[in-house]
TrEMBL record:
This is DUF3322 and DUF2220 domain-containing protein. The keyword Ribosomal protein does not apply. Residues 206-372 form the Wadjet protein JetD C-terminal domain. Transmembrane segments: none annotated. Keywords: Plasmid. The keyword DNA repair does not apply. Residues 5-186 form the DUF3322 domain. It comes from Cupriavidus pauculus. Pfam families: DUF3322, JetD_C. InterPro entries: DUF3322, JetD_C, TOPRIM_DnaG/twinkle, UCP028408. The lineage of its organism: Bacteria, Pseudomonadati, Pseudomonadota, Betaproteobacteria, Burkholderiales.
Length: 387
């Protein structure tokens, strides 16, 4: 026999599940829910009549939802008895009422306000991460949703993020709400913002001195196996470093071969202002990124700063060879070929735009092919290595 308090506690625990909240608050198909109360057995009925009577009275006093009763005949009883068997909760409001928890009630009210003011695409996000509705004012949360629907690729046009003026926001609004904005933009743009970063997505100046992963490709030229350092500290690399490979993704670290007097710099993404720094003058530099429009866009950015830059494993012939590993590119970098690509690279960019699966991530290429391409570049081939 379950009391209203016991089943209310179960309903309160269910509220703590993000997926349960989403299902029950955003889908009419989740209702009603039916909770089994349990029926006193014959022994309990005969030996503890008072407890059974109190149990029945408790359920008769319940005003939330619908208590479903069943007529039961016990040998120890003189006549049939109405026993509560199920508690049917028909709506989210009844769920919260039955949970009988003040914190849950406040959260429910705030979520209701949020859902009323946010675009439907953002409802599940806010219900799943209820802290946004609790911590932000109703007006601030609604404004975040409005801004997320307004922002688009390249909107900053090379300005700092704080200079973006949309929806009447102040200069610190985007940074103040950065995490939630990125999550909302990810929903609109299929995860692109998490992949390339907010600054890159908006086309904004990255005002932070980005941390990069630096890995010596041969032992002894640096006093560490790998280390994160700021882009501004790269100029402190010793003069014995003669070759530099810029690698788009840190996930490709395990693919790198051993190369004398060479270092790899990983994870810069689109934050590439540092490639113009004087310390790179006189060094042989190569770029290795994903074979997709974003990878080629980054290649073009570096080439504009370093005209004799080599590319590694970023050619159409390589894409064709390993096309079975390709996947869909969620959102292409743009319809126009970026300045800085060679003619063959520009043709490859246009080719990728037409493909249903126009993305081949660098970390999935065979290690032996990667090693061969790196050694070809190291040995003197100038561009399009590993194609």
């Amino acid at each position: 026999m379950k009391s209203p308090v016991e089943l209310g506690a179960r309903l309160a625990r269910a509220w703590q599940s993000a997926e349960t909240r989403v299902a029950r608050l955003l889908s009419a198909d989740a209702w009603p829910i039916r909770l089994a109360i349990g029926r006193p057995d014959a022994k309990t009925f005969s030996s503890d009549t008072l407890a059974v009577k109190q149990h029945i009275e408790l359920w008769r006093s319940v005003e939330v939802g619908v208590v479903q009763w069943e007529t039961v005949t016990y040998r120890a009883g003189r006549e049939p008895v109405e026993i509560p068997r199920y508690w049917e909760i028909r709506t989210p409001t009844e769920w919260v009422g039955a949970a009988a928890d003040e914190t849950i009630l406040r959260e429910f009210q705030r979520l209701g306000e949020a859902v009323q003011r946010l675009d439907a695409d953002f409802h599940a996000l806010v219900v799943r991460q209820r802290r946004w509705a609790v911590e932000l004012s109703e007006e601030e949360l609604a404004k975040v949703g409005e801004v997320a629907l307004t922002l688009g690729r390249g909107m900053a046009a090379g300005r700092p993020i704080r200079a973006i003026a949309v929806c009447g926001i102040d200069s610190k609004f985007i940074e103040r709400n950065r995490t939630l904005l990125c999550q909302m933009l990810d929903l609109r743009f299929d995860g692109l913002v998490s992949e390339i970063g907010l600054e890159a997505f908006l086309g904004a100046i990255d005002e932070d001195d980005r941390w990069l992963l630096v890995v010596p490709l041969t032992a002894g030229i640096l006093p560490f196996r790998q280390q994160r350092i700021r882009a501004s500290e790269l100029e402190g690399l010793p003069g014995t470093v003669k070759h530099v490979v810029i690698v788009e993704n840190e996930r490709a670290l395990y693919q790198l071969p051993t190369l004398p007097h060479a270092v790899a710099i990983l994870g810069a993404g689109l934050s590439l202002n540092w490639v113009r720094d004087p310390w790179l003058d006189g060094k042989r530099v190569a770029y290795w990124g994903d074979m997709d429009t974003w990878g080629l866009t980054m290649l073009a950015t570096v080439r504009r700063a370093i005209p004799d830059l080599a590319s590694i494993l970023m050619a159409k012939q390589c894409f064709d060879r390993y096309s079975e590993l390709s996947v869909r590119e969620p959102v292409p970098a743009g319809d126009s070929v970026p300045a800085g690509l060679t003619m063959s690279e520009a043709e490859f960019y246009q080719f990728l735009l037409l493909q249903e699966r126009g993305r081949l991530e660098q970390e999935f290429l065979p290690s032996d092919a990667v090693h061969t391409a790196f050694w070809q570049w190291y040995g003197g081939e100038s561009n399009g290595v590993g194609s």
